[in-house]
Design brief:
- By secondary structure, the protein is an alpha/beta fold.
- The protein is built from ten helices and twelve strands.
- The chain has a six-stranded mixed β-sheet, sandwiched between helices.
- Helix 5 (102-113) crosses helix 6 (130-141) and helix 5 packs across helix 9.
- The protein starts with a strand and ends with a helix.
- Bound molecules: 2'-monophosphoadenosine-5'-diphosphate.
């Protein structure tokens, strides 16, 4: 019998995950199906449980259900526990296991695909919501010289930084507290969705810096600003494919090649 998987979100129609996992399955010869399923805003848990009851083997979870997915799990990976959010579910008999592959996906895209080592670097992370929280632990694991979390609501950035104190050099504050130049500037805010630019100082990019927007598929004001300041710019498509590869590995025990899939999506 063909194993079935799905991604749950709201909205979900434009998700690229079915395409990505279909490519991974074809490439590795895995007998599986993967669909994008809409969960009602007030009915995430019921929708996932019905999918599992129908034979589903695992699922990805996207906005706005990652915290609800975390709460649904009987067991979680250490990185999911820290992130407080789950983007990958695996159904093992009665147990629901949760992982969070977003941070690993971002780190892999930065270090392996974009060739930007993070050890010893100065990293600025914009945003203090769920998207930012999911990547703080994996970024700190790389041993950056410093990680500064900046947010419009400064308190949220300070609280998030405090939650990860002891795991690296990490602090948080508002945009007026951003000092000096950074080697890597990551946008984990919802500003790009609204076509807005977070209030960054112009000198925020060190020579050769990379600006990374976790959004993909359109030129964001942040990336335009970065290019105008002479920085390199990358969108989040590589992160999307890499987090999917981590999920695929968790489910199938096989690691797919990501570069051809990223190239395919870029061409589409
Ligand atoms: P997500 O799960 O995508 O992280 P979220 O939890 O709603 O969504 O968080 C959105 C983040 O984007 C927050 O850090 C928010 O800043 P505030 O906490 O100050 O609201 C940030 N954000 C949204 N719009 C922004 C904008 N125009 N400029 C800067 N930051 C913005």
């Amino acid at each position: 019998m063909t194993d079935t998987y799905a991604v749950f979100g709201n909205p979900i129609a434009h998700s690229k995950s079915p395409r990505i996992h279909a490519e991974f399955a074809r490439q590795t010869g895995q007998d599986m199906r993967y669909a994008a399923l809409l969960a009602p805003l007030e009915g995430f848990t019921e929708t996932v449980l019905a999918f599992r009851a129908g034979g589903g083997r695992g699922a990805n979870v996207t906005v706005p259900f990652k915290e609800a997915a975390w709460a649904l799990c009987g067991r979680r990976s250490a990185r999911a526990e820290l992130a407080g959010a789950v983007n990958t579910l695996k159904f093992d008999g009665e147990e629901i296991y949760g992982d969070n592959t977003d941070g690993a996906g971002l780190v892999r895209d930065l270090t392996a695909n974009l060739d930007v080592p993070l050890a010893g670097r100065r990293i600025l992370l914009m945003g203090a919501g769920g998207a930012a929280r999911g990547v703080v632990g994996p970024l700190l694991e790389q041993g950056p010289r410093a990680l500064f979390i900046v947010n419009r609501t400064a308190d949220k950035a300070m609280t998030l930084a405090a939650a990860f104190a002891g795991q690296g050099v990490v602090a948080g504050g508002g945009y007026d507290a951003v000092r000096g130049a950074y080697d890597v500037v990551i946008n984990a805010t919802a500003a790009s969705l609204a076509g807005e630019l977070p209030p960054l100082p112009e000198q925020v990019f060190a020579p050769g810096a990379l600006a990374y927007d976790m959004m993909y598929g359109r030129d964001t004001p942040f990336l335009a600003f970065a290019l105008a300041q002479g920085a390199r710019a990358a969108d989040g498509l590589g992160m999307l494919v890499e987090q999917a590869a981590e999920a695929f590995f968790l489910w199938r025990g096989v690691r797919p090649l990501t570069a051809p899939v990223i190239a395919l999506l870029r061409a589409a």
